[in-house]
Amino acid sequence: MGILKNFGLYIVASIAATVLPYLAIQYWSGIAYRGFMSFDILVLSILFVAFRYRQGKLRLALMSFCFLGGILSLGWDWENLYQESFDFAYWVESFRESWKGIFVLILAFLLQIGSCTFVVSRAKPVGATPAILFILGLVIVHNFMYAINSTVPILEFPALEQLNSYSKNQFNDTRNKLSEATLTAFPDNKSQAVSLKHLDATRTNVIILLESWGVPINVQRMQSEFAVFNTLPHVYSGLQKNDSSRTRFAERTSFGNAINALRVHGFESIYLFGGSDSLQERFRYIPAMEFQKVFFGGNLKGDSCPYAQPGICDKDVAAKIDSLLSEGPLDSTSLTRKMIAWTTLATHFPMKDSATYYRSLQQTQSLIVDLAKKHPEVRFIVLGDHEPLLCPKAFRTAFYQKWVPFVVLN
Question: pTM score, two decimals?
Fold first, then answer.
């Protein structure tokens, strides 16, 4: 029973290391698929206790190595969370110069260190063989469960994720940095929010997030996708830096900024999405953005399309937007200018092949072109929400990371 108790203490310590970051995600209604046990803390705790009961000159040095390694792992875990969750990153940026935000983060970090240290101080050595078998068995169970449902991992690997992030930044410039050919073909590449810069406060604006519309590394491919919009006058196109490959990030920045900018001018704000409000927990954060009207698949009329994420067809959502743009004022107090936000659905991954993606992308782009032609008095801003993600690696690596195209019509 003693060995089971000690393994239980190590498990509790590994959970104590991850519980505060997990609660932070829940508090900000963020989406970040994380394990509930820290692999780093689990291994370092077992080693720390083993060295603690060992005699020799290197005892204190090895214990210090494990303790400082644990602190470093906890710090990396918070940094990984900052990279994974836009909502948490947004909060950190908001309080960057506030002593309150810094105080809360320091307090949470010290609480993690204290709780892990307290639990580990009550554990005793378990022996090399049982420890190796325990860790190996846990990794096997983690991999097995991850293969079944990747959204509910058991283990979190802060050091490995940090190394993976570093290697991507250092050795994968092909996807992280725009090539000279791309910069030459599309000199207008922005870091600021395009939707905010090109809003027109004198008329109705339609902002469209085109699901999984990324920037291909192949310049000719990107040019052919922009060519769809060339039948319209006043086409303005380019590339925008996207700080996080998350639809939630894109909706919060593109739609949220537009609402705040146009609300003071008396615009009516409307949000449309053909899928379920449970997809990426939109029922949590869309209402918080204070749209005056919200349409999800459940309250939109139209055909149900067999997309990867089932919902109302993009063509029917486009028809709904057409009817909203065609509405006249009901009375002298009605709002005549609108800010309509639409996140498309047809190109949501996974898909069976790349041909399906390109066909769906072109179809949705054609719907947008038809809308803009029919309503030349309306400003249309179209941009990708993120590059293709839930797809085979060979296809995913054909796109730049964290860059999306945009086009401004009318």
Answer: 0.61
Q: Which domains does the chain have, with CATH numbers?
A: 2-171 (no CATH), 177-409 (3.40.720.10)
Say if residues 396 and 212 touch (Cβ distance below 8 Å).
no
Strand partners, 343: 209, 273
Q: Return the minimum-mean-pLDDT range out of 146-155, 279-288, 337-346, 369-378.
A: 146-155
List, in sequence order, every beta strand (DSSP E) within 164-260: 189-190, 205-210, 236-241
Q: How many CB atoms lie within 10 A of CB 271?
A: 23
| CA–CA dist 345, 380 (Å, integer) | 18
- 63-91 pLDDT, tens digit per residue, is 999 999 999 999 888 887 766 654 565 55
Burial per residue of 281-309, b for 16 or more beta-carbon CB atoms within 10 angstroms, e otherwise? ebebbbeebebeebbbbeebebeebebbb
Q: Across the strands, what pairs with 294?
A: 271
